[in-house]
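Aim 2 progress. For Alpha-methylacyl-CoA racemase, the working sequence is reproduced below.
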Amino acid sequence: MTALAGLKVIEIAGLAPAPFAGKVLADFGAEVVRVDRSTSAMNFDVLAKNKRSIALNLKSPAGIEALIRLCEKADVVIEPFRPGVMERLGLGPDVLLKRNPRLIYTRMTGFGQEGHYAKMAGHDINYLAISGVLSTLGKHDEKPAFPINLLADFAGGGLMCALGVLLALQERTKSGKGQVVDAAMIDGVNYLGSFVYNMNKAGALFQTPAGTGQLDGGSHFYDTYKTKDGLFMAVGAIEVEFYKLLLKGLELDEKKDKLPEQMDSSNWPKMKALFTKIFLSKTQAEWVRIFDNTDACVTPVLDYYSMPAPAPAPRLLRTPARTPVSNEGSDMFLEVGGESKKILTEAGFSEEEIRDLVAKNAVAGAGLEKSSL
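Predicted structure tokens for this construct:
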């Protein structure tokens, strides 16, 4: 038994953030049906594991009505379009919630439903920029150092979207009613940065220009260092007791070597130069052996792509997630419309109704060619 067993989710196909939200729900047991365009031939999708596909023509009134009927039997619908698109299709919240008052209607956008940027196109880097988070990354006298598209698309986007779904489902157990979940990536990534923002306003941390502070690469005890073999070690020895263990591993002595106080920022560049020289004297493997099983907070920077495939998180011990993804290519493909007929049948469509949908070019998929019905 999985945590979300029995939860029925309709995911309208879109770019990565919304499919990731669907993947999170699917990994923990939800029955996720992806609604693809009937003309789509895109079977490759690394976020498709544990999902099923139905191909509908949403430019057809019959296709629209078919999707509405699917949503009548669903707990959640996730839509990835810009503001107004679902309304123009006749699939807005007013329509779907009227047909299914318990539905959790989830909207995944970049800039939200309202505001100056709402109807503009954007990607992860743009959401980071407008939220202000991008200005905190990198060094103040250089251009911002944006990460790969994880922060806004997946953490602030897809994961926050899934969280919104779960919150709305929990509330539904009390009220018996569905609601609209407005998940905007700009809001999500801004919320992720709450700690940084609040610490800055409190005058506690992040007061100095980007790249010069304690936790953003300015200090010598919270940074990465190149090793003799061209690899890297990550150092995060903030606390005094951990810092002492770091110095011990580097064969440094505060008194003997007349080292400055750890938090004396005026000496951080000097200490960083010293650490750089020392780390270059040994290979990554040698440093790993030195700091292994210590609390010095020193670890190797490993190659992400050589690691085992990521598993669903967090781990639930009594109701674990479905089998983690493998490195097999079969996990990365979902045949568009591969289960169209079965999904319609499960939703209560009769054989005659399915034939009618095919005749109207409202649905497509394996075994649904007009001549085969």
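The chain has 13 helices and ten strands. This observation will guide construct design in the next reporting period.
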